Amino acid sequence: MSKLLDMLQTQVRLVAEDKSPDRELLLEIAQYFTGFPDLSHHPKEDLIFNRLTMLHPEAIETVQALARDHEEGDRELKRFVRAVIRLILDPDADQDNS
To answer: With a cut of 50, which residues of the chain have pLDDT below it?
Structure first.
């Protein structure tokens, strides 16, 4: 994941510099982050969080805060995917819109 985030940062810099990013790479990164976490990462987290709250009930507020953070991350990911799709479909469109 960290390598993909590094590659994403490089592409974001290109956009900020009014250069053309690698649209295919952006789409593949978006696809990865919309698929992998739900298939592998989040189920593992759910198991860990459930076990943690069983062993340490006092941690429930922290676990709930993490769940809220994940929900916010999911919303941001959806915004990112929409932006990538817009970039691919209309590369000349204003990129400031979300």
So the answer is: 97-98
